Amino acid sequence: MSVLRPLDKQPGLNTATILLVGTEDALLQQLADSMLKEDCASELRVHLARSLPLPSSVDRPRIDLIVFVVNLHSKYSLRNVEESLRHVDATFFLGKAAFLATGASPSLSKACRS
């Protein structure tokens, strides 16, 4: 069982690698496509994973940010993220990890804005 650590590999010059973790492939792909469309001075790489741990690979790039995508309507989605968290070193949570909640109802979104 491999644990992702933020400083396992040397950073690439002018590159950032983001790992999106979630159960909804179409949503992850849409998010990745939107990120890649943005104009950026550096090279952005986005990798998708349904869950962690990632397969052991010598060629895997350094991960600069992990985004855990949770569907609020799916218990499986939440369990998947909980299980994946076991494979992430605690130091990732010092500015190198984020949680994105999807599936909120419009009424909940309005309540949060006010």
Automatic annotation (TrEMBL):
Location within or outside the cell: Chromosome, Centromere; Nucleus
InterPro entries attached to this UniProt entry: Centromere_Cenp-M (IPR020987), P-loop_NTPase (IPR027417)
Keywords (A to Z) from UniProt: Centromere, Chromosome, Nucleus
UniProt keyword Nucleus, yes or no: yes
UniProt protein name: Centromere protein M
Nucleus among keywords: yes
Domain of life: Eukaryota
Pfam families xrefs: CENP-M
Source organism per UniProt: Panthera pardus (Leopard)
A GO CC term attached to the entry: chromosome, centromeric region
Gene from which this protein is expressed: CENPM
